[in-house]
């Protein structure tokens, strides 16, 4: 192994993923490791792509969205298309996440109110 490539074990350790995850991303044509017999050797490009895949997943992007955004890298327009599409997708996901947060904060508030009511009711029953 050269310093430019990493084997599957090294990739798993470096990115805290499983071999199954790497094989899955390869099957989905998100990663393209070099094959040497049964061995997979991941290049710097694969490592950069995996970093973006994991970040995208963390932000709620679907694998198809991630694949489409990664495929835009080679458009020949200094990444203008890729960056604008990424920003558009990110804005949509941020809006969704903020809406989910508002809904969650509302549900938490309601649950706290119900818990206070329940605790107060329990305390009044215990006083009797």
Give the name of the CATH architecture of one domain: Orthogonal Bundle
Instruction: List the secondary-structure elements in sequence, H or E.
Output: EHHEEHHH
Strand content: 5-15%
Helical content, roughly?
A: 55-70%
Task: Tell me the distance between the termini.
Answer: 77 Å
Which consecutive residue ranges, at least 5 long each, have pLDDT under 50? none
| Annotation field: number of helices | 5
The strand count comes to: 3
| CATH fold category name of one domain | Multidrug-efflux Transporter Regulator, Chain: A, Domain 2
Shape: elongated
Summed over residues and divided by their number, the pLDDT gives a mean of 93
Describe the secondary structure blueprint for this structure.
Elements: E1 6-7, H1 8-15, H2 19-27, E2 34-36, E3 39-42, H3 44-58, H4 63-71, H5 80-127
Antiparallel strand pairs: 1-3, 2-3
Helix pairs in contact: 3-4, 4-5
Describe the protein in words.
The protein is mainly alpha-helical and 128 residues long. The chain has a domain at 1-61: Multidrug-efflux Transporter Regulator, Chain: A, Domain 2 (Orthogonal Bundle), CATH 1.10.1660. 70% of the residues lie in helices and 7% in strands. The chain has 5 helices and 3 strands, in the order βααββααα. It has helices at residues 8-15, 19-27, 44-58, 63-71, 80-127, and strands at residues 6-7, 34-36, 39-42. The protein has a 3-stranded antiparallel β-sheet with strand order 1-3-2. A hairpin with a 2-residue loop joins β2 and β3 (39-42). α3 (44-58) packs across α4 (63-71) and α4 packs antiparallel against α5 (80-127).
């Amino acid at each position: 192994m050269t310093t430019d490539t990493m084997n599957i074990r090294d990739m798993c350790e470096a990115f805290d993923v499983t071999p199954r995850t790497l094989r899955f991303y390869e099957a989905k044509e998100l990663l393209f490791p070099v094959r040497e017999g049964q061995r997979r050797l991941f290049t710097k490009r694969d490592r950069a792509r995996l970093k973006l895949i994991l970040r995208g997943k963390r932000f709620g992007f679907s694998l198809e969205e991630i694949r489409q955004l990664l495929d835009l890298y080679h458009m020949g327009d200094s990444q203008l298309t890729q960056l604008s599409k990424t920003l558009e997708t990110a804005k949509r996901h941020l809006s969704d996440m903020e809406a989910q947060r508002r809904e969650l904060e509302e549900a938490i508030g309601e649950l706290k109110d119900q818990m206070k009511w329940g605790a107060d009711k329990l305390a009044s029953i215990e006083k009797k």
